[in-house]
């Protein structure tokens, strides 16, 4: 395969074709189950924390909540990861952390997701507890132990270091790399 980098101005057609053929090869039914999703990303046999995280990612990609990711949901997810504006990504991260869907992130939810991500990525400069405490200390403006979407987005937009940390920690480009089988893209 040639090392053809797509430029930001390029249309999505060749890229989408690549994803479509990969998706249909891996998933001829056109419906990707959680098991197939893990297989596609080579994420079988994770510890329970890692499994929880992958299930959350899968559930968020499964826009109509039918238990499968179809091609349109798959492309919407990839598009968000590659081309999404920062506020779209922050809303997505918020949804990922808000495990019970109540519109707030509490410390337990953030700790659980960060622990799961560490289980998959395997490298970090701080413990999940330190990370969670730091996030809440910096952006929980009313100190109620819960973050609203507004607190989350405003807090991250005001703190570049924290934004970078969150973006790196929850970067899904390693998921994309698995899907792309080694093809590189500038994000």
TrEMBL record:
Q: Which GO terms describe its cellular component?
A: photoreceptor outer segment
* InterPro entries attached to this UniProt entry: EF-hand-dom_pair, EF_Hand_1_Ca_BS, EF_hand_dom, Recoverin
Q: Which PANTHER family match?
A: CALCIUM BINDING PROTEINS (PTHR23055), GUANYLYL CYCLASE-ACTIVATING PROTEIN 3 (PTHR23055:SF80)
Q: Which domain of life is it from?
A: Eukaryota
Pfam name, any one: EF-hand_1
Q: What is this protein called?
A: GUC1C protein
Whether Repeat counts among this entry's keywords is yes
Which residue numbers delimit the EF-hand domain? Answer: 49-84, 85-120, 127-162
Provide the alphabetized UniProt keywords. Answer: Calcium, Lipoprotein, Metal-binding, Myristate, Repeat
Is Lipoprotein among this UniProt entry's keywords? yes
The source organism is: Nyctibius bracteatus (Rufous potoo)
Molecular function terms from GO: calcium ion binding; calcium sensitive guanylate cyclase activator activity
């Amino acid at each position: 395969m040639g090392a053809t980098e797509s430029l930001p101005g390029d249309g999505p057609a060749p890229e989408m074709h690549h994803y479509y053929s990969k998706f249909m090869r891996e998933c001829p039914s056109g419906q990707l189950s959680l098991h197939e999703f893990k297989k596609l990303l080579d994420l079988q046999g994770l510890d329970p924390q890692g499994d929880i995280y992958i299930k959350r990612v899968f559930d968020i990609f499964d826009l109509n909540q039918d238990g499968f990711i179809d091609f349109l949901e798959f492309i919407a997810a990839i598009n968000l990861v590659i081309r999404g504006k920062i506020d779209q990504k922050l809303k997505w991260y918020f949804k990922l952390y808000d495990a019970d869907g109540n519109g707030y992130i509490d410390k337990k939810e953030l700790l659980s997701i960060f622990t799961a991500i560490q289980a998959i990525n395997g490298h970090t400069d701080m413990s999940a507890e330190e990370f969670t405490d730091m996030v809440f200390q910096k952006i929980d403006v009313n100190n109620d132990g819960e973050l609203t979407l507004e607190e989350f987005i405003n807090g991250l937009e005001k703190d570049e270091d924290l934004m970078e940390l969150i973006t790196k920690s929850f970067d899904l480009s390693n998921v994309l790399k698995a899907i792309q089988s080694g093809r590189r893209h500038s994000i």
